[in-house]
Amino acid sequence: MEPVAPAEMPDAGEAGRQGRIAAALLAQRGRLLLWVPICLGLGSGGWFALRVEPGAEAYLGGALAILVLMTLGRWAGEVAAPLVWAVALMLCGAMLAGARAHSVAAPVLGFRYYGPVEGRIIEIDRSVSDMPRLTLDRVVLADVAPHRTPERVRVSLHGAQDYVTPEPGLTVILTGHLSPPAGPVEPGGFDFRRNAWFERLGATGYTRTPVLVLAPAEEGRAGLAVFRMRMAISAAVQEHIPGAAGAFAAAILTGDRSAMPREVVENLRNSNLAHLLAISGLHMGLLTGSVFAALRGLLALVPWLALRFPIRKAAALGALAAGAFYLALSGGAVSTMRAFVMVSVMLVAVILERRAISLRSVALAATLLLVISPEALLGPGFQMSFAATTALVAAFGALRTQRERLKRLPRWLMPVLAVALSSAVAGAATAPYSAAHFNRLADYGLLANLASVPLMGALVMPAAVTAAVLWPFGLAAPAFWAMQMGLEWILYVADRVAGMEGAVTHVISPGGAVLPLLTLGFLFTLIWCGRMRWIGLGAVAVALALWTQASRPDALIADTGGLVGIMGPDGRVLSRPRGDGFAAQVWLENDGDGGDQASAAVRTGFTGPPHDRRAALGDTTVRHLAGKTGLKDLGERCGPGVIVANVKVETRPAGPCWLLDPVDLRATGAIALRIREGGLEVETVADRSGQRMWSP
């Protein structure tokens, strides 16, 4: 045998490294299913992050690439195959997002409209300003062609509205102001246009004139049976349980929050009890658990049945049917869908005599939701719901190894520990997402949950099930009374905890990479088998470090030209105490500022009369001109600086100033300015969002 030349001899260190990598990948074989929703989510998230809408050739290329990768995956070895399938799943996630976006395409109003609006009521809720709000379909607008008329519009009701009691199916007519769905109030902010696109909502607006009936609800009831049932049950519940407790009961039973007072909702948020308001895993689990226990107990009372039939499986089927009805009744929110899929997996496992709760069931629920509604990935409901569920399943799964030690504890202590642990784990898991989306942390949330969640499980939901069973016989009053007592206690706890000093910590918005990096690190730590899992904790630490270094724009300009905000020594200074209130609220929240618009307008920064406000932005002057009175101060020439006007400027002055009026801002969207060594760095919503199908 000829000797092998040194240059041809394999590197022992390199071979060892390759062997360790292969062994680490092979160790994941039992957990590959858990990576399916992660890969789909990465693909969907990447599609939503695009700034240019993909064309037909991109989708064709993606489909061909998926077919090639699926073929390669079948022939690749054990080590390479999962990596090939991971890339294929990412492409599938992107294709699903694109298919979903095109499938819901509907006309979007391209201009501001004022005139008669006709439509059928398909949703009743409340606006951000706590005004009644109607969503209409079968829309008719004066002098607007049918192919340009939005499929749905949403109108807030201002002024006296005593002429009509809104109900599902009622065809109404009103005189209203409509506009295309609004874009982000700052570059990189929440894009309502995207949400509206997936809801097929083509315009939003308001009316200050009375809403009138054009046709009775009976004529428009087709396709609204579930919605009509939901609103009928909501009204009946509120007849039995008055006040805020009744509105709370209606919200957790039917998903109807239209009667919830704004201050009550704020108290629930500031005490970290808002999750009790959303129909989620807690409610679905308590409801189906109560039905399962009741059915199993009733069937066990009949010995002939108990000895001859699998009553446990029959009770699981009954609980599954109750969960499906609850899902339909609630309107099918993301958290409710996730909860139903989880409960369904658990109950089917009971029927098949398999383990009911595992990370596989969480992965299955996430996969189904990402296939059905890829856009849900970007919402706080999806993120917080799965963060809590994943953390809880992992935590209680880890406790199984400590079963013998736990048996030594007093039996009465176990439920207390379970509630405390579940509240702490779920609170810690959802805290980053809550802080990122809502810019607040409820510092006493654990205390509020310990005082409220046990009562929700032991009294409120069982009483709700009992009321539903006894209602047809007219015997539900005691159950409604018990439910009312429990809900009033929860509202009392929320009010007291929210009113405590230091109850809320306001948090600055993170950069765009923080949440994805934090999520991937969290999931990698839970899912990966082997010592490499601790890399995930490193990713979480990096994400949190990036969050602490987050910075906010030195100046923000609203897309209407009606508000300017400058970062000053005491926080953001606003040019006006009123007007563009939603933009002002979001800017301050994203700054991690707990102030309101009125207080921010009197901070040190802007000077001058109300119609001509001026502030220094580094070496540049920013002027905000209000109305025609402000334009009179503009003059024929202007010096260096930024000038923002809230009315159209017909004759533009000569000079080096940068003038922005509503016409300019309609094209760019809101603007963010940052001070840099070379001058001002400008970023617009149009630059950040790109040209997507929901963007103008």
Write the layout of secondary structure elements.
Elements lengths: L11 H15 L9 H14 L6 H20 L4 H24 L9 E14 L5 E10 L10 E6 L13 E9 L12 H7 L2 E7 L4 E4 L9 H16 L2 H12 L7 H9 L10 H20 L2 H6 L2 H20 L3 H19 L6 H14 L7 H20 L3 H5 L5 H26 L1 E3 L2 H26 L6 H22 L5 E3 L7 H14 L6 H15 L6 E3 L6 E5 L2 E4 L6 H10 L6 H5 L10 E6 L2 E6 L1 H6 L9 E4 L12 E3 L1 H7 L2 E6 L2 E6 H5 L7
Parallel strand pairs: 3-5, 13-14, 14-15
Antiparallel strand pairs: 1-2, 1-4, 2-3, 4-5, 4-6, 7-8, 9-10, 9-16, 10-11, 12-13, 16-17
Subcellular location: Cell membrane
Membrane topology: Multi-pass membrane protein
InterPro entries: ComEC_N (IPR004477), Competence_DNA_uptake (IPR052159), DUF4131 (IPR025405)
